């Protein structure tokens, strides 16, 4: 079976979040199951590859595009759009030409797919939302899967940009890709793909409710019969404390982990023997920073040290940085994207905090488990599917959970974590148990294979 993956990021080439982990790792597992998978990405700044094709696209004017290749990856090259710092924008906001950039990307990939013979085109997130429609219009026999990694990002653009898409005006209606007077790329992906998936079973249910549907719950309910959740895995080739070259000390047990803890504290200027909470996250409202900021003084009073790595929302960045200025030996805030430090935080922290308002799947909690770092999470989306609350009596569970989205409930979960931390033998056992829990891609990849086999072109009996 020949599969095309299409996305706006994938490790090792370009990453802002979990999407890149998934698009980098899932194809590897699918290949192990015998599928032939190629991945299409924009050719961002710094990506090399070998020139393998040229193509002209009509989008108001003629665009001459080059296609580069590196192993199983194809890169769509249009330097004016993609050879710049940042994938979607700068700290000042999104690029103003994202509509043009990802329409061009989608048109080029659609044309390449139309002249090849793919069985399945697996598109990811709003940046690729137009592709299922372009393929249908081009009478492609490839079946399309559209995966929503985060419903909060929809690719909404003003109506004036509609001509860029090159579609008939009949598509600018509420039944199609018009959305409250705007264009909505994610809506296009939901409506015109043969199957819609999302990245956990719980999130697949949540997004069909008005509370969690970001205004698209009604549209999603129309696709209910073709909407399924498949939980993400992680790539243990990349995230494994026994082989990880980026951490200070490779380890397979709790003792080995402790060496990383001390080195991480030294590197970040933290002092003392208090339990250490780590966070590696986009700094966005979604990730629970409002309740974290409100709870921060209590967290310090309770006796935790905190290390945060992330970037994003400027006002949260400022607030967090203030805490580190006030408590330089207890709070370390690192505003940047830094893969090496991320690995060191997963390895060196005692707890990993994800107080998310919503979380489609979440990879941080799965990575931290592998490093024996106990997740403290809110019960939402994929966090609810992967983390079970720790019971000190039975020793069942793999983390600490709170349900209501509030600082008060976050603090309660943290105080339970502190109690568990103070029972040293039990805490060591919990940490070592977490290291052995398996969230590899194997089972989820099998589910995708089954899905690819069962998917039919919509509207046909094939
Ligand atoms: P999301 O995709 O919503 O950002 P996930 O938990 O699914 O959240 O995945 C986030 C991924 O991005 C993880 O691999 C995490 O380690 C990584 N990450 C997030 N922020 C940073 C950062 N500032 N530096 C390095 N890695 C980061």
Describe this protein with a few key phrases.
six-stranded parallel beta sheet; 16 helices; globular; 462 residues; nine-stranded mixed beta sheet
* Poorly predicted segments: none
The CATH superfamily of the largest domain is Glycogen Phosphorylase B
> For the terminal residues, how far apart are their CA atoms?
16 Å
Tell me the CATH architecture of the largest domain: 3-Layer(aba) Sandwich
Overall 3D shape: globular
Mean pLDDT: 97
Q: List bound small molecules.
A: adenosine-5'-diphosphate
Q: Within the largest sheet, what's the order of strands? A: 3-4-5-2-1-8-9-13-14
Q: Number of folding domains?
A: 2
| CATH top level assignment of the largest domain | Alpha Beta
Main sheet attributes: strand count, strand direction, barrel closure: 9 strands, mixed
CATH fold node name of the largest domain: Rossmann fold
Q: How much beta, percentage-wise?
A: 15-25%
**Sheet/helix structural class:** alpha/beta
Rg (CA only)? 23 Å
Q: How much helix is in the residues?
A: 25-40%
């Amino acid at each position: 079976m020949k599969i095309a993956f299409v996305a706006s990021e994938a490790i090792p080439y370009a990453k802002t979040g979990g999407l890149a982990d998934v698009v980098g790792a899932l194809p590897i597992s699918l290949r192990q199951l015998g599928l032939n998978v190629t991945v299409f990405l924009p050719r961002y700044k710094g990506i090399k590859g070998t020139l393998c094709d040229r193509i002209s696209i009509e989008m108001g004017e003629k665009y001459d595009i080059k296609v580069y290749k590196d192993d199983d990856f194809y890169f769509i090259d249009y330097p004016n759009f993609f050879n710049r710092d940042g994938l979607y924008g700068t700290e000042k906001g999104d690029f103003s030409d994202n509509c043009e950039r990802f329409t061009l990307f989608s048109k080029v990939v659609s044309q390449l797919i139309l002249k090849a013979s793919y069985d399945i085109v697996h598109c990811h997130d709003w940046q690729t939302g137009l592709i299922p429609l372009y393929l249908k219009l081009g009478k492609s026999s490839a079946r399309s899967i559209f995966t929503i990694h985060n419903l909060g990002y929809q690719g909404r653009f003003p109506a004036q940009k509609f001509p860029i898409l090159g579609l008939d005006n009949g598509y600018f209606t509420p039944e199609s890709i018009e959305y409250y007077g705007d264009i909505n790329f994610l809506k296009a992906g939901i409506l015109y793909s043969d199957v819609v998936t999302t990245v956990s079973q719980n999130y697949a249910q949540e997004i069909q409710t008005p509370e969690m549907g970001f205004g698209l719950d009604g549209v999603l309910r129309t696709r209910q019969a073709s909407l399924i959740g498949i939980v993400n895995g992680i790539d243990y080739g990349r995230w494994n404390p026994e082989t990880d070259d980026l951490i200070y000390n490779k380890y397979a047990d709790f003792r080995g982990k402790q060496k990383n803890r001390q080195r991480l504290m030294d590197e970040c200027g933290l002092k003392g023997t208090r339990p250490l909470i780590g966070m590696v996250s986009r700094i966005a409202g979604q990730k629970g920073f409002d309740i974290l900021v409100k709870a921060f003084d209590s967290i310090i009073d309770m006796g935790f040290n905190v290390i945060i790595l992330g970037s994003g929302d400027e006002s949260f960045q400022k607030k967090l940085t203030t805490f580190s200025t006030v408590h330089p030996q207890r709070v370390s805030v690192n505003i940047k994207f830094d893969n090496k430090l991320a690995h060191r935080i997963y390895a060196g922290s005692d707890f990993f905090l994800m107080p998310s308002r919503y979380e489609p799947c979440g990879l941080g909690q799965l990575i931290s488990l592998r490093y024996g770092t106990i997740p403290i999470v809110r019960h939402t989306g994929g966090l609810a599917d992967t983390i079970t609350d720790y019971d000190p009596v039975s020793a069942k569970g793999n983390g600490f959970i709170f349900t209501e989205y509030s600082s008060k409930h976050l603090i309660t979960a943290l105080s339970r974590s502190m109690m568990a931390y103070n029972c040293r033998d039990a805490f060591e056992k919990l940490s070592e148990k977490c290291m052995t829990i398996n969230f590899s891609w194997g089972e989820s990849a099998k589910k995708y294979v089954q899905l690819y086999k069962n998917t039919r072109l919509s509207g046909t009996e094939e």
